[in-house]
Specification:
The protein is an alpha/beta fold and 153 residues long. It has a single domain (22-148), classed as Rossmann fold. 50% of the residues lie in helices and 16% in strands. It has a 5-stranded parallel beta sheet with strand order 2-1-3-4-5, with helices on both faces. The longest helix is centred in the first third of the chain and has 18 residues, at 2-19. The protein is globular. The termini are far apart.
């Protein structure tokens, strides 16, 4: 009974977080070579008020970032040609105004502790295992945004 009520409280906290205007107008770039993942994330985030741009490759993502710097990047790690690790390395070498400090979430099929450490060391702020759980992704985004607001960015 206690577990159930704690779960209900957690769900209510999550809903309150997402009922805020936190996501409205937020420019999110999704980078994933898998069309189903891109479409799912696009739908989920757009339903919560975010403005979504999606790219199927790192090259496409860099072209988009050169035109409009997003507020958040969500990138798969395992992509052909250029992977998500290379994308974050390229981004982190850029000046802030060109996207060098975009908050970034990595998506990966590998969810071990060493994978998480490698992802964070590469320059991502969050690491989420696939298949993506909607509540986990939305909570991670909300946490990242709150951290940036809290730090004055």
């Amino acid at each position: 009974m206690i577990e159930e009520s704690q779960g209900a409280v957690r769900v209510r906290e999550v809903e309150e977080k997402f009922n805020s205007s936190l996501f409205h107008g937020l420019r999110i770039l999704i980078v994933d070579d898998d069309v189903d993942t891109r479409e799912f994330l696009h739908f989920l985030l757009q339903q919560n008020g975010a403005l979504i741009t999606a790219a199927a490759s790192v090259k496409e993502a860099l072209t988009i970032i050169a035109q409009v710097v997003p507020n958040l990047l969500i990138s798969d790690l395992g992509m052909p040609e250029i992977d998500g690790y290379s994308l974050i390395k390229i981004l982190r070498a850029m000046p802030k105004e060109e996207g060098g400090e975009i908050p970034a979430i990595a998506l990966t099929a590998y969810a071990g502790e060493s994978d998480r450490d490698r992802v964070l060391a590469a320059g991502f702020q969050k690491h989420i295992a696939k298949p993506v759980q909607p509540t986990e992704l939305l909570t991670s985004i909300a946490d990242l945004l709150e951290q940036r607001v809290g730090s004055g960015e």
